[in-house]
Amino acid sequence: xxxxxxxxxxxxxxxxxxxxxxxxxxxxxxxxxxxxxxxxxxxxxxxxxxxxxxxxxxxxxxxxxxxxxxxxxxxxxxxxxxxxxxxxxxxxxxxxxxxxxxxxxxxxxxxxxxxxxxxxxxxxxxxxxxxxxxxxxxxxxxxxxxxxxxxxxxxxxxxxxxxxxxxxxxxxxxxxxxxxxxxxxxxx
Amino acid sequence: xxxxxxxxxxxxxxxxxxxxxxxxxxxxxxxxxxxxxxxxxxxxxxxxxxxxxxxxxxxxxxxxxxxxxxxxxxxxxxxxxxxxxxxxxxxxxxxxxxxxxxxxxxxxxxxxxxxxxxxxxxxxxxxxxxxxxxxxxxxxxxxxxxxxxxxxxxxxxxxxxxxxxxxxxxxxxxxxxxxxxxxxxxxxxxxxxxxxxxxxxxxxxxxxxxxxxxxxxxxxxxxxxxxxxxxxxxxxxxxxxxxxxxxxxxxxxxxxxxxxxxxxxxxxxxxxxxxxxxxxxxxxxxxxxxxxxxxxxxxxxxxxxxxxxxxxxxxxxxxxxxxxxxxxxxxxxxxxxxxxxxxxxxxxxxxxxxxxxxxxxxxxxxxxxxxxxxxxxxxxxxxxxxxxxxxxxxxxxxxxxxxxxxxxxxxxxxxxxxxxxxxxxxxxxxxxxxxxxxxxxxxxxxxxxxxxxxxxxxxxxxxxxxxxxxxxxxxxxxxxxxxxxxxxxxxxxxxxxxxxxxxxxxxxxxxxxxxxxxxxxxxxxxxxxxxxxxxxxxxxxxxxxxxxxxxxxxxxxxxxxxxxxxxxxxxxxxxxxxxxxxxxxxxxxxxxxxxxxxxxxxxxxxxxxxxxxxxxxxxxxxxxxxxxxxxxxxxxxxxxxxxxxxxxxxxxxxxxxxxxxxxxxx
Lengths: 188, 666
Known about the structure:
Order of helices and strands of chain A: HEEHEHEHEHEEH
Helix content of chain A: 25-40%
Distance between the termini of chain A: 72 Å
Distance between the termini of chain B: 40 Å
Structural class of chain A: alpha/beta
Shape of chain B: globular
Oligomer: heterodimer
Strand order of the largest sheet of chain A: 5-4-3-6-7
Strand content of chain B: 5-15%
Number of helices of chain B: 19
Mean pLDDT of chain B: 85
């Protein structure tokens, strides 16, 4: 028994060593973190509207049964990149006919209202996630994040970080087209 | 010419290390005194030659010798001299050379100062130390030679990363390495003891100064790194649970456990195999840190030149050193006899709890750090583990630790008197509860966990002071008598008081700056006003300024409180043309009550850059300076303990084996 206990550290070290050896594979890029949500049903949630805003709240039922896939964007007024992304998303909504829903993440209602008043409100519905609970359900790694959800409520695409800059916009446009989230003929 | 001398010196150091790894240990098993004594000379010779190599590299940096590849990649002729010197250890190769230098310094330290250590133990220890030296010297010479030449030499260098042009960097790696690598000698002592098959109080006493020295430097190194991230990197935080931070923190946690368990081995001849295991594991975690930082195994904000081939080599080193020592442990540890018995309530038991919690905390950090790798290997899923996991798992453990930390020093060895104990701490507990309630009443709000932490910190502080007051019988006898008693107390005892109080102060800083931090991120045009934590801040605009090797956008922020001018802050966004990179220079108004921290960033996109608008980040972090003050207390406490008389005067000798050299170590 004593021998067994004394041998435990060695066994643990060997196991760890095996993992390290595996991890050294040069093909591996530890920075790439894909979403576990892709091809999974979107999580269930039901969020109240942002107080002081006329836009209605957001629940999972709003995302399903739509004719075309829709876009869910997680944003906050305290998030600086969101400000830059806001202009891009607004353009997609106005010019391409993308349908956009928002989750206002851990944001003071009055700040969010002021933010949307200053910049304009491209969102059809906005749920206020004050506690950040829904953010956890969606597996957020930060704000902003953008998801494409199809009519069955399945998550098709996830974009971490702001959709800003030519590369990001290109990737996002491709994803929208593949998902069929844009009305026909509207593609530019 | 000078770089070749450096290269040659490294080869000579390797040759000496090879001799030292065989001869003394063979001498110890055959009883050949001359062979054993040879370690003395080879250990000092190693330091000499590695120092020559290090000086040669430093010289190449100082004169900007752009025929050396390492200098080209990490320096620039326009760089301030201080940072040219610091560039010596700024790169992978240079820092590894520093690693080896410190390894050699600790080996030579034992050879030089360890005259109270029996010849066999010393010979074995130095041989083990030389094994590590051989491993790292071959690694340096075979895969990362710092003296590689480049032809044709370029006209100028590629600069050191401007983020690293800071005093913090100049001092941070040397201190951190001193701590990291310092545990190598403790490891060598442990392996030598396993080979000898014997551990006793004398062994624990020889090991103690080295453990303490390593621990003190590691503490200072981690605190400095944290301070650096906070002030220089503009991250607005002092700890991020980043893998690279974690790998420096794990040896610290386990090293702290080792310091305490070695006390039990020293005083009570107990916890022997546990102390040995801790000594092995602490250095193993240091090695693991080196491996993770240099192999690109995990994702991290800290970047080093990453090369899988090097990673493979270090993994090989790890396999031999950690695997070998743990196998040796599995083989020899069960034969060690357990020592001194103790009751469930005693100082031994208190220190046992301390060790269990610290080990569990280390395990938690290790698990959280490696979990993404393990999960990816097993299921293919990629995730990242962030602060929420560590905060949820780690903080409660630390709170439990703090409770025992306050209690421990009151306990006596073997068997503590429970009634007397309760009598002495009742007052402290009441005081801590009063302090936490007062905080609750005054602050009115904030996370509940923060109040528990305040309770813990107050308890620890009062208990530590109370224990100290009891020792010198403060207010029971005359002040002069108390002062006399304080002078007569061993310095290690004062060291403990100071270090434990330091932890309480540190906690206060952490609680204040996490629980009551206020933060504003605004998109500001000139004239914008921001109010935060009672300060009214006006953004006056930003202007371009020219620095020695950078161009900066400097913002001007006027800070007022109740209409009165407090200060003017100038945060900068610097652009380094040679390195083509940018850094944030935050401007901070620092007082004991808290830091007003401002930084400026370029707008997120050009579309919104109208009317000279800038993104301002303004934070108020209450009490954050207590973190640095607490760390300084920890370091001073460690140094005091290190200067204790009993570590300087000859340690008790083993009865059966008279030491060959009877002169005290001073």
